[in-house]
């Protein structure tokens, strides 16, 4: 690999890192999974995600909107209603997110066993 090519790889890694951090965030994952069911109003979304604060949901939605994964629609009502839904990009992300979630769920027994074995060895 040439020096120039190595610089390109490092530069690309720096650009990818924030994207991976965003899509690996637990709140992002839960918002994406929830929005797979279709357009959802803010308060309905907040009620459906246990433990998320209004501030964290707002931050997460803004970041996902900025990344092009979520679209925000404001309806001219009093008070204004806001609805969020996955964009085409967000829908494409939901596929690997759900696959990763399924993998984690399917492997919980093996992970628990590994934890127990590790902890048992460390006690002595």
TrEMBL record:
Q: Do you know which InterPro entries this protein is assigned to? A: HTH_HxlR, WH-like_DNA-bd_sf, WH_DNA-bd_sf
Q: Where are the transmembrane segments?
A: none
From which domain of life does this come?
Bacteria
Name the PROSITE patterns on file: HTH_HXLR
List UniProt keywords, sorted A-Z. DNA-binding, Transcription, Transcription regulation
* Entry annotated with the keyword Transcription: yes
Could you tell me which residue ranges the HTH hxlR-type domain spans?
A: 13-112
Keyword check for Iron-sulfur? no
- Protein known as: Helix-turn-helix transcriptional regulator
Recorded source organism is Paraburkholderia edwinii
Cite the source lineage. Answer: Bacteria, Pseudomonadati, Pseudomonadota, Betaproteobacteria, Burkholderiales
């Amino acid at each position: 690999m040439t020096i120039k090519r190595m610089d390109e790889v490092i530069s690309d890694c720096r650009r990818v890192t924030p994207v991976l951090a965003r899509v690996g965030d637990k709140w992002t994952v839960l918002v994406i999974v929830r929005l797979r069911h279709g357009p959802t109003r803010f308060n309905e979304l907040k009620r459906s995600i246990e433990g998320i604060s209004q501030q964290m949901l707002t931050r997460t939605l803004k970041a996902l909107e900025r990344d092009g994964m979520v679209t925000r629609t404001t309806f001219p009502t009093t008070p204004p209603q806001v609805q969020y839904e996955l964009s085409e990009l967000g829908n494409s992300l939901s596929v690997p997110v759900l696959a990763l979630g399924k993998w984690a769920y399917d492997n919980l027994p093996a992970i628990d066993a590994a934890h127990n074995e590790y902890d048992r060895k460390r006690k002595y």
